Amino acid sequence: MWVLLWLLLLFCAFSNGLSTRPDVVNVGAVLSLDSDVGKHIKIAIEEAVKDVNSNKSVLQHTKLQVNFKNSNCSAFLGLTQAMKYMETDVVAIIGPQSSVIAHTILSIAQEFTTPFLSLATDPTLSSIEFPYFVRTTHSDRFQMMAVAEVVGHYGWKQVTIIYNDDDYGRNGLAALDEALYAKRCRVLYKAPIPPRKLDRGGIMHILVKVALMESRVIIVHVHRGVGLQIFSLAQDLGMSIGYVWIATDWLAAALDTAPPLRSQIMMNDLQGVLMLRQHTTDSERKRAFMAKWNHELAVGSLGLSTYALHAYDTVWLLAHAIDSFLNEGGKVSLSNDSKLKSINGSKLHLDKMLIFDDGPLLLKNILETEFVGLTGLIKFTSTRSLVFPAYEIVNLIGTGRHIIGYWSNDSSLSATAPELLNKSSGNHSSAPIELNSVVWPGEALSTPRGWVFPNNGNLLRIGVPLRVGYKEFVSQDQGVNSFKGFCIDVFLAAIDLLPYAVPHKFIPFGNGRENPSYDELVYSITTGMFDGVVGDVTIVTNRTRIVDFTQPYAASGLVVVSSVKILNSGAWSFLGPFSHKLWGVCAAFFLLVGIVVWTLEHRTNNEFRGPPKRQMITILWFSFSTLFFAHKQSTVSTLGRMVLLIWLFVVLIINSSYTASLTSILTLQQLYSPIKGIDTLKNSQDVVGYQVGSFSEQYLYGLGIPKSRLKPLGSLEEYATALERGPRRGGVDAVVDERPYADLFLASQCQCRVIGEEFTKSGWGFAFARDSPLAVDLSTAILTLSENGHLQRIRDKWLTTSSCSSDNTEMQLQSNQLHLQSFWVLYALTGSACVIAIMMHFCFICCASRNNEIEISHSVDPNLGESSRSKRMQNLWSLIDDKGGSRRGRKRRKLEEIASQRMKGPGSST
Predict the structure, then answer these.
(1) What value does the mean pLDDT take over residues 704-708?
(2) How many CA atoms lie within 13 A of 795 on its CB side?
(3) 558-563/752-755 β-pairing
(4) What is the pLDDT confidence band of residue 12, given thresholds at 50, 70 and 90?
């Protein structure tokens, strides 16, 4: 009974639920039905409505009805048609398809809480600004990221953009500009197309301006009608060979929606063009719909574009959302807006406008809906964007469309479709990007360089430092605006190797009275004063942050230059090979070895015995005679021979080193300077000179040398004068400058030398604006000059060899004096041998003394008592000083001494 009652209640509730569902749910659509895209979107929507209504699992017994209104590509008409829907019971509006119309219509959507499901791609259409805006296709922000990725993949650094001067074009341009900046590319020229219709003459005028620009990479982001005219006129102007044309998905929509015959005619003006098209996942359902489209729906009159597929999925999205909306108790109820009642009586009849009461609930269900449609997975992210945005990069060749690769937000560029790439294992982010081959405009197979020098009659402005000194590197001819020098010749030789002409003009920088600031010269490139800088410009870190340099054409590093003195060999030159400390250690070890050998040989060798005076003379003579291997005393003990063998080896090394060093001192002329390198300058109070305008001033200041010790110098003559005078007469102790300047200075100043080694490593290069392709090409040319020897010939032409005598090349600034650290291992070995030998020798003596005492104690009267400590010491000394004999003889003599002591004992005195 209770079961029957429960089933009855359940049936009543179900019946009541069905009765609350409306029979028809009305949906509006605002489309540009006069356009090909609008026409085929309408066909796709109608087909989707049929499929939804025939599928009872979605809306059950509720029918979905879509009413179409034509905006006729007009923002005003679109707004008017949308306002008409606000007087009806529509729960949502599909459209508008145009970004320009969307900005106008969506401003009213929030007021009436009606969701708009739009195919507009304008990236600025935000859900924050328009809460009831739902984009059912992909934003142009992703498309522009794909375009930037393609530009970066081929290494192009600057582009020209042709765009419609409306919301669609300007906002797409802003997104592209941002994406290109992330790839270190820049928009060189922006060519806007006015919203009003242009004739062929107006479009041709714009294209002529584009042709005069430097960039040959042209991105076209316009509407269909203008875009096709642009490509047709570009062919007439010969803008094909050497150009790169990239079209956004407007071109794909135009080709896909055009009939086959018309599409083939359009392809004649599009050979070699790259275009982007939204990628949709391949599936059986999609292929079945395409077949149905071609044979039943459009019957060859219209092609099928991705916009039609997204429109079809939009209807299904709305059907699923409405079904969930009704299941959650939502009602299609509308009411008047209280804010508009005050305008009652107006001819606009705004009081008839209705508000969809449960619009927020339907919007929530739309955003939470998830299903698989013709285009793939339909699901919204937290930012209300469809998941998995992806684009195809298509190369138009002949009458076909060749897909060279894909771009997706997850895997970036790839030759594999994103859905297949995601299924494969492994991390693809680190793999090198490889796209399929491209046939470029003019049937070129090699990738275009992407830029040329502009044909607008403007010459490349090259800044040249107006130097005061060292004019061998760069100088201006008197009375004419031309330059010469080593740097100028290298630049001219490099541009001669380029496969294109480089029209340029040199512009002097500086007042001619002092060297200009090279940092300011390089910075002038960023301000637009110069297009590049040619001269003796050092590549340093702070400059590379603002400009690009070529490959270095000259090695450069900071060195210390100082005056040196010639040290003549005098009467005491023979002491020069060794330092004072080394002489002292040598003398000490000679004495030490003599004493050790005497100690070891004294007991057993008659040559080391005798009166004290004789023994002292023997020690001294033996010690110093080993220096010449002239010692006449022979060693007998094993320990003595061991010590002497090691010492003679050390003497051999010391003797050879002394001879070699003394020979070098007496045969080579010695140079001396109290400055030993940059460390000496840092830790002293010496005055240091530097070249005016050079980066060396800031470098020295960064090392901790105060500016009070830094003195600016401007020319070779000032260098020589300052070093000659010294700090006491207003000069300097040393000059810190780059190696090329130092070499040129030392070529005529023989009394100066480079002290120490280079303490920085750098080079000279030509500077250009960031991402300038000319810097890359000139780098290749400089490497070619270096490889074929032409760079060295230019160097030999301008930078003369030394005029100093050839004898000076043999002068050595580093001292030939030997120091203790060169021999400390040998001395440590000798000292260790001496210590070990002495310790072993005394161990033997102590053992012999102990044994002797034991034997004597067993042989004497026990009543005599123990010997005193002094007697033990006397016994030990007798063993050290006594000439070693037999053990029995030593014992007999000891017994005789004890017997004599007995006779002198207490008993004899009584």
Answers:
(1) 87
(2) 14
(3) antiparallel
(4) very low
